[in-house]
Amino acid sequence: MYPAEIKEYHKPDSVEQVLELIANHEEGESLLLAGGQSAMQAIKSRMLRPQCIIDLQGLQELKTINDESETLKIGAMVRYCELVKSSSLNNNFTGLKDAAAHVGDRQVRNRGTIGGSVCWNYAAACTPTAVLALDGNMHLISSDGEIKVICADDFFLGPLDTAKSESDILISVSFKKSKTRSGSAYKKWGLVKDALPVVGIAAFVKLDSNGSCCEARIALTGMGVGAQRAAAGETPLLGSDGDPQSIEAATENICANIDAPTDLSATSDYRHQLIRSIGTEVILTAFKRAST
Amino acid sequence: MKNIKLTVNGEKFEEQIDNRLLLVDFLRDNLSLTGTHVGCTYEGVCGACTIHLDGDAVKSCMLLAVQADGHNVTTIEGLSADGGLTNLQQAFNDEHGLQCGYCTPGILMNMADFLTENPNPSEEQIRHGLIGNLCRCTGYVHIVRAVKKAAKMLKDSAHEDRT
Amino acid sequence: MTSAQDPNSIEWLGERLARKEDLRLVTGKGKYLADIVIPGTLHAVFVRSEYAHANITGIDLSEAESMPGVVAIYTGENIKDRINPMPQAIVQPNLPAKYPTFWPLAVGKVTFHGEPVALIIARDKYIAEDASELVLVDYEELPVVLDPEKALSRNSTVVHEKDGTNEIFSMTFTGGENEEAQNSNEAEVNAIFDSAPVVVKERFKTHRTGLTPMEPRGVLCDWNESDGLTAYITTQRPHIDRLALSDILEISAEKVRVIAPRDQGGGFGVKAPFYRENIIIAYAAKSLGKPVRWIESRYESLMNVGQERDQINDMEIAADLEGNLLALRNKGIADNGVGTTGVYWGFVMPFLGAIELPNAYKWPKAHISLKVATTNKACLTPSRAFGHFPTRFALERCIDMVAHKIGMEASELRRNNLVDALPYTSVTNEYYDSGDFLKVWDTLVEKADISAFRKRQSEALNDNRYIGIGFGCGVELSGVASDLLVPMENQPGYGAATVRLDPRGKVQVFGGDAPGGQGHETTTAQVVASEFGIDPAAVVVTTGDTGTTPFGSGSIGARAGSYFVSAVADACRELKEKITRILAYDLKIEARTEHFEFTDGEVIYIGDRSKKSSFVSIVERIIMFPINLPENEVGGLDATAFFEAAKPMICFNADCCVVEVNIETGDFEILEWMTTEDVGNVINPMVVDGQMHGAIVQGISNAVFEEFVYDDQGQQLTADFENYKLATAADVPNIDIHYATTPCPHTPLGTRGIGEGRPSSIPGALTNAVCDALTPLKIEITELPLRPNSIWEKIQQAKQP
User: Fold this and answer.
1) Do B93 and C722 touch (CB under 8 A)?
2) Least C-beta-crowded within 10 Å: which of B130, C401, C544, C724?
3) Residue B12 at interface with chain A, using a CB cutoff of 8 Å
4) In this prediction, does ipTM exceed 0.95?
5) Looking at the structure, do residues A122 and A95 belong to the same domain, yes or no?
6) Nearest CB to B41 within list C18, C298, C692
7) Nearest partner of C275 among C314, C204, C219, judged by Cα
8) In chain B, what residues touch C265 (CB-CB under 8 Å)?
9) Distance, CA of A87 to CA of A67 (rounded, Å)
10) Element spanning B23, H or E
């Protein structure tokens, strides 16, 4: 119910100060706190017992969305509510908006951040899934000053496991803007509205000048392994214009190639059916958004 | 222990507190503002603890009190600036939007924020906006009606201000 | 004391009066248990069992005890010789059952995941939790008993060894009092089944679910030698809690006061039992001589209480081809959990559920029996729709299945067999006092317009869309008469109210039952205002304090609108008689009470309207200036009335819902929900509407989203709101309520108690609608919860050749 003892609490003003604080503590002692909407559950249930909390709310430099000509760069501390309102996410990156708009509830969205979500990488989470489908890049700084850029495929390793090490801070998540038409979408299903995804699917498609799909990325969550690529679903879409047969082949391929667990939320067969149903809708929407 | 300075309902406070003290407990136990309620354990799902942090509706059980250092907090006791009922509170009274009242402060704080962003909400938007507040008594029907009425009252009074 | 309706008292009744409670509640000034501050209060945290069934082989408190800030720690061993164990007569039904011995902390062994094992008292609640982690308990695991049918078998491990069996209770509810009569009735029922043209036989299962008030439980106890014990408890029945604490802790009753806080965050039955925590917290306060407070966490709440409805019903209905119901046969098996909770012991819920099983239908013959099994799970807790949620689901589904077999509309089959003349006594000897079921039913069916719906449905099918309509109904208790409450709960059923006038013409009302949000302050004020012709603002209602209120068995079974307000009305009328006697004397006229009108703050003689008094002045005269009175009259205006209805009373409702099922995913959406209610005369329509909305949404949430899950080791897996999912506003529809009322002839105001049983007709109506939508696939659903996953599986099975 209540957190275990927290020996230190800091709210630094700069990334440098954060790195210094991390370096001054043993591994496993400190915790970077972003929005806290996931971390505080773990801290209050005492699953996590950080000795030192480093509150990132003071890092104004991580709170901006930079909409550049080639890249969209989202600061790690940008909140879901800001993603939902940002026009920079229109066109290519609506899938990320879809995900952000339905995380938890509006109180959560007023606080939770994109950086917190991707670094936590909960087993069933919307934002990592959308970031993975949109081929996001995670920009990190480590305590020795080294800047690392890790693509989403390499960043998300498994539930609560990412390529970010404890001495790194995530600075931003960036996305390359497509030169040709592209579109994305995300949808999930849970027992109650906007619940954690029992199945969540994100799709991104890029069209060439003829309107044929030249690139597709599909990501999935809810299978118990965190956000995962569903590459098997991408191949049937290439060269298509989003026709029903290609989409059906895509979702069938995903079902054939991805194990779905049976748990309290759903059976394996039902998860596969949701993949078909939601996958179809999400891929169709991505194509529609790409064509407009 | 940490020394924090914050404004709560327009009043300045300086307190020495434990790092691990939850904001909801600080408000209820240290400042005796018991209008904010606790309805779940650590999961932060029920929303009864909703307050405004710098104007945004957030769950106070999901924050450490130290995180409010230097910030503005508004609780249900401070929702009305002049001590009378706000349009939203009046609408809840008019439409019987509460029964036991336990979830009500959280709902009012959330909806007050919601209405500033959605002055003309549809029923679907209201219901979606209420996902973060569980209510057991009302079945939500009267709550939705109350929020709709409040939106109308706010619109009418804004119109009056302009004419 | 009852009386015919008084023609004076109709002004405030039926008024959509905004509630008096709201001002404090919308401004955060309510006072719930956790808001009550007594300086010097110590905080209590329970250490609870990690195992479902295990011997306690050792408890090491040394580390916990030495933590700074820890004041005391209690275990079963160190309190068992100091506190009387349960059962105690005051919280034990007069029913033949097994009542296991237990203390508030586990002694010797634990019997469910979450059972309290130790109690830590500390200066600060955070420290108390720290200390609770340092308590080391050694367990020796025992085989777990989880399946109720297996629990009843001969080779099962027995949970309460001294009782020698896991069958805590069993009963046959039809045929008569003795076994011979019951057997001969059963034989007659069997004969009907043997020759009936239509028989539907099915096993229906309802899962473990119930009610979760938004405010968890809490106890705050204060002790001093001279006043004794003051216990603030989140309770629906403070007067019973008081007697139980007195008996168990051997504190003389005049030194025990229980106060239910004025504001409680919902009860719904969950705050009706007498809980272990009450005992041990009171004991700790007394032993330490300091105030002690326990506030339940949601985790504890979901682990320990709010679990009900866990039942198997093997049901059979016999009918003829014209749609007449001929007989009903039902064998119920209830999963009681450990059964160790005072007042209800878990089994009283299935007991009442079996009694209410016949519902609103005329059954020529029935055989209804029930077995209740002990398992290593939390004890069943009463949850709104006390006991009959599972039996009503089974019945309403089975009736639909009979209709399908015959080939007639399920709503028509119902109408054919609804009780058409009241009063009526059911096959389980339940008395239905009054009402017009057919009027309610026809009102609903007219609104539902089935033939128009069938057209809509077939057009939708052409579009490959599956919509369906479903019906259900419910006869619900309106208060609980002593005739039932004495055997069932060893408590009286009467309503009691003290009405006290003051010299300024204001009124105080005192009632012993403790509400949790039903608006009693307002509805009571409306009744008093209507009786005396004054403003409801002049009426202040105090509830739930045993030190100031007359005895009441509790806010249970819809007692307020049936028994409590009736006592209020009777007390007001007693005072009106005195007022008019004295006023007539003062005016020097011969007149009786019925010759006076109480209206608009005046008391007026109808025969000559110039002869009158303001209400305030006649009241002041009687209380403050009691001279020149009629012979044998004394001053003062204070009356306490006790109300027991002439007969047990009921109310009735009918539900209709329309759903659309997504055939690809089994997901469904409720498109419409409409209901018709007979709630008797209505005091405040807004309050009644709110009660109906709340109950229906609770029913939907229970049927679809909520489920308490235990794994095969008896570990409870759903002890937080991420896993135990409640419906949010986005998950439930609007509800359209209609009224078709008949005044109750047995209450002074013609009102009925409402709202308690209301959720029971929901799961049947909803599942009926889903099955109706899937008629082309001939799917019949017989199990709850009603989930898209399981609907989809049924669709797949149906599609197979």
Assistant:
1) no
2) C401
3) no
4) yes
5) yes
6) C298
7) C219
8) 37, 39, 100-103
9) 10
10) helix B23-25
pLDDT in tens, C216-272: 999 999 999 999 999 999 999 999 999 999 999 999 999 999 999 999 999 999 999
Domains in chain C: boundaries: 22-30+494-643, 33-142+216-264+271-304, 387-479+648-799
Other CB atoms within a 10 A radius of the CB of residue C82 amount to 12
Interface test with A, best of C663, C700, C787, C792 (most A CBs within 10 A): C792
Q: Which residues face C232 on adjacent strands?
A: C220, C259
Q: Where are the alpha helices (DSSP H) in C559-612?
A: 565-587
Residue in chain C closest to A3 (alpha carbons) equals: C126
B64 contacts A7? CB cut-off 8 A: no
Tell me if A9 and B66 make a contact (CB, 8 A cut-off): yes
Distances (CA, A) of C214 to A107, B107, C241, C432: 18, 13, 22, 33
Burial class (CB in 10 A: 0-12, 13-18, 19+), C292: buried
Query: In which domain, by residue range, is A136 found?
Result: 64-176
The reply to whether residue A193 touches residue B132, judged by beta carbons under 8 angstroms, is no
Domain assignment present for residue A77? The answer is yes
Quote the crossing angle between the two packed helices C389-406 and C348-355, to the nearest 10°.
30
Residues of B in contact with C214 (CB under 8 A): 37, 39, 46, 48, 100, 102-103, 134-137
Residues of B in contact with A112 (CB under 8 A): none
pTM of the model: 0.97
Task: Find the farthest-apart pair of alpha carbons in chain C and give their distance in angstroms, rounded.
Answer: 94
Residue of B nearest to C19 (CA): B93
User: Is residue B103 within 8 angstroms of chain A, CB to CB?
Assistant: no
Interface partners of chain A (CB pairs < 8 Å, 3 or more) are B, C
Banded model confidence at residue C2, pLDDT cuts 50, 70, 90: very low
Domains held by chain A: number: 3
Chains that touch C (3 or more CB pairs under 8 A): A, B
Distance CA C449, CA C747 (A): 34
| For residues C49-58, average pLDDT | 98
Kindly provide the residue ranges of all beta strands, DSSP E only, lying in C374-441, ordered along the sequence.
424-425, 431-432
List pLDDT tens digits, range A183-226: 999 999 999 999 999 999 999 999 999 999 999 999 999 999 99
Model confidence at C801, in pLDDT bands (50, 70, 90)?
confident
CATH of C33-142+216-264+271-304 given 3.40.50.720, 3.30.200.20, 3.40.50.2300, 3.90.1170.50? 3.90.1170.50
Calculate ∠ Cα C790-C791-C795, nearest 5°: 115
